[in-house]
Design brief:
single chain, 14 helices, 17 strands, globular, binds pyridoxal-5'-phosphate
Length: 459
């Protein structure tokens, strides 16, 4: 009998994928757990767990020491930087590690305000932020108001939660020093045309700071093609440990002045990394990037991705686990990551189409964000919804709690996309219920969720 997955055409070997993630096997009240909370943080494959515990077991040390485990630690950090450089398509010296995206962004905003173009930012300078963004790409820039910087806001089209690009363009001028924009909305799933926005920023002489935290698990990031000045992401959103990563163009990391302790080297990227980093988690970063690359290598062998870089591939029915060192496949890790994200994209979009089509048949539910299938390439599979004319037991929190009892892990509230929930006037009534799909979710989970929502929300 065909499994549910075979009803979707996918280059991913979903049983193999799910077997990588031990957490997915859990149950709640006898129900299989359905992790639909990816936007809050994804689960990790066994290899990430092994890399973290292996580092603690064998190599646990500080950096720069003249002994074996310290040298191992230096080598491990270099490997993780190289892995993230492959992930983002940049130089390893342009990768800065930090505790999370928010902390890295505050560090950058403090230093950005301190000196740029030979003087501190102040009155007359402007920074553009958007109503769609997570507050971590807003508040650190708002903090520069204390220096007299003017913050301008790009508005949204309320009917589909996309950025109003005409409004955004009209607010960039020769006073604009920075445009801070998200790659994708963690609340409603909109993917912003960041490349075009970066071009607008550069044309006005401003820099572009891209929050790719939500986009990270869903799409390929190429900072070279984007030509962004900074891009931040968090590895815990794409199957890795709780860490933040900042890409900064070499010239900016060298030119801007970090607040740092005197003995710390002035070389990049280390001048931006303060104190001792979370080495064990960084050990897990290489493993999570390699996991995505392995998805790509396996996808070569399955339907549709046999010649992504123009090379014919040997077909194997079993996915990445059968690949040995001599197996033909993408020639570099970056090429494998490209293939991995193409496979993820195809599968996630098939799941998302099914979920949105199912939700559209529940009249009591309203989806916020893009619902026109012709524009689905402009969204990722993160859905915000509410029950129309909700009763007290149909608030987003009540929905999430009822679903939680049945093993569906979803979120309610604003998820720090505060400007959006305020703009749409849902903040005081509980925000949204958020369903976030990633590539380890299944058709069966989507169908069960739809049935549960029909029961709770009314048909
Ligand atoms: C779009 C977006 N930006 C920024 C953040 C903050 O990331 P971090 O938790 O790494 O500070 C999040 C966290 O959910 C997010 O979804």
């Amino acid at each position: 009998m065909p499994t549910a997955e075979t009803t979707l055409s996918t280059p991913l070997d979903i049983p193999w994928v799910r077997a990588q993630f031990p957490a997915l096997a859990q149950t709640v009240n006898g129900h299989p757990a359905a992790f639909l909370d990816g936007p809050g943080g994804t689960q990790v494959p066994q290899r990430v767990i092994d890399a973290i515990s292996g580092y603690l077991r064998r190599n646990n040390a500080n950096t720069g020491g003249a002994y074996a485990t310290s040298r191992d630690t230096d080598a491990m950090l270099a490997e993780a930087r190289a892995a993230m450089a492959d992930f983002l398509n940049c130089g390893a010296d342009e990768i800065v590690f930090g505790p999370n995206m928010t902390t890295l962004t505050y560090a950058m905003s403090r230093s950005f305000g301190r000196e740029i173009g030979g003087r501190d930012l102040g009155p007359g300078d402007e920074i553009l932020v958007t109503r769609l963004d997570h507050d971590a790409n807003v508040s650190p820039w708002l903090a520069l108001e204390e220096k007299g910087v003017t913050i301008r806001w790009a508005e949204i089209h309320e009917e589909n939660c996309t950025l109003d690009l005409a409004d955004l363009a009209s607010k960039i001028n020769d006073r604009t020093k920075l445009v801070a924009v998200g790659y994708a909305s963690n609340a409603v799933g909109t993917i912003n045309p960041v490349k075009a926005i970066i071009r607008l920023a550069h044309a006005a002489g401003a820099l572009a700071y891209i929050d790719a935290v939500h986009y990270g698990p869903h799409g390929l990031i190429d900072v070279a093609a984007l030509d962004c000045d900074f891009l931040v992401c968090s590895t815990y959103k794409f199957f890795g440990p709780h860490m933040g990563v900042l890409f900064g163009k070499r010239e900016h990391l060298q030119r801007l002045r970090p607040y740092k302790v005197r003995p710390l080297t002035d070389a990049i990227p280390n001048r931006w990394e303060w104190g001792t980093l979370n080495h064990e988690c960084i050990a897990g970063i290489t493993a999570c990037v390699d996991y995505i690359a392995d998805l790509g290598r396996g996808a070569y062998d399955r339907n549709g991705l046999a010649s992504l870089d123009g090379q014919p591939r040997r077909l194997s029915p079993h996915g990445p686990s059968t690949l040995g060192p001599d197996t033909p496949g993408p020639s570099t890790r970056r090429a494998a990551i490209v293939a991995g994200f193409e496979a993820i994209h195809r599968y996630e979009h098939a799941l998302m189409d099914r979920l949105i089509a199912g939700l559209a048949k529940i009249p009591a539910i309203k989806i916020y964000g893009i619902t026109d299938p012709a524009r689905f390439e402009e969204r990722c599979p993160t859905l915000a919804l509410r029950v129309i004319n909700q009763t007290a037991d149909q608030t987003p929190l009540a929905l999430a709690a009822k679903l939680g009892e049945q093993g569906f892990f979803t979120w309610d509230g604003n998820y720090y996309a505060l400007n959006l929930t305020e703009r749409l006037d849902v903040e005081k009534s509980g925000g949204f219920l958020r369903i976030g799909l990633v590539h380890y979710n299944t058709v069966e989970e989507v169908d069960r969720l739809l049935a549960a929502l029909r029961d709770i929300a009314g048909r």
